[in-house]
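We modelled the chain as a single entity of 182 amino acids. Its sequence is:
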Amino acid sequence: MDMIFFDNIDKLGRIVLTTVMVYVLIVTVTKVSGKRSTSQLNNFDWIVTVMIGSLGASTILLKDIPFVEGVSSILVLYLLQFVVTKYASVSPQFSNFILSEPRIVFYQGQFLPDAMRDERLTRQEIECAMRSEGINSFDDVEAIVFESDAKLTVIPKPSQSNKSDDDQNTNSNVSETINPLM
């Protein structure tokens, strides 16, 4: 019970110094690695971010993990993330393997219960996405897509004034962004 509030000054000094160094490292490498590190995270990016946080905390708090070993593991994760995302950007098959596919959960006035159940989404979450976009009628929505970064994208129905005569005469009223998901 004697170490609840304070152990010793050497341990505290090591933690403070290591915290500053790990903080500077993670901020610097995140800045260098670009927006991908801090954008809306898909499953893959989220896992890497959690691992980096865990490694940073372990390096700070565990005295049997030397700073250089902690830094090395963090840098290797950033490098792996760069390599994997770079390869995913040129290989659709690999990208499909590591990323979740977007999925339509609401289409032309209808909730899609199977898709909602598979993605574990509630009607309230979908309605929240509509309100966030300033849409208050189901009739104004062409589709709602659950994206690979777990964001709900609301696609409004095209207004009649924006359609050309050719568009009104076509059989397909599906937008270009939704068509590949169908």
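As a brief sanity check on the tokenised model: Strands lie at 103-107, 110-111, 141-146, 152-156. The CA atoms of residues 42 and 149 lie 4 Å apart.
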